[in-house]
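> example.struct
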């Protein structure tokens, strides 16, 4: 069964800036602490990354997975699902971006992960917090 989590945060940066950062996958290692490498495997006819392979640190080890991105609701939603992974059965998620009244952006980060091996609750909670830190790191990047 998949574990789900979400985080909502507001940034002073406009939606266009947040979208630009969220879709610049090759630069994730510059701002997303746990992402060690991101490689675009395929692009669509508009040049957008469709399949991206990630190497991240997770639970004290390195893990690899490939995500497929969905731009059908862009720039309000950037959704993804896992194509391949080594310690996960599934990863589904989305960035949901909404303009605030002052021109900033509300970012909601939704995530559902199913691991191959079950983990104790305290380990899952620690891993969840590290993953959700990504949205805070995105905010910092957007505001610099």
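> example.seq
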């Amino acid at each position: 069964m998949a574990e789900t989590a979400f985080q909502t945060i507001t940034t002073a940066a406009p939606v266009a800036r947040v979208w630009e950062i969220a879709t610049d996958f090759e630069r994730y290692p510059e701002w997303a602490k746990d992402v060690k490498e991101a490689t675009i495997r395929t692009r669509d006819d508009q040049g957008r990354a469709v399949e991206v392979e990630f190497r991240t640190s997770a639970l004290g080890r390195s893990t690899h997975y490939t995500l497929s991105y969905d731009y059908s609701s862009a720039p309000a939603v950037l959704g993804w699902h896992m194509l391949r992974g080594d310690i996960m059965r599934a990863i589904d998620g989305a960035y949901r971006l909404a303009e605030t009244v002052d021109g900033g952006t509300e970012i909601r980060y939704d995530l559902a992960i199913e691991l191959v091996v079950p983990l104790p609750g305290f380990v899952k909670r620690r891993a969840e917090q590290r993953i959700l830190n990504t949205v805070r790191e995105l905010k910092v990047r957007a505001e610099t």
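> remarks
Helices lie at 15-22, 28-31, 121-143.
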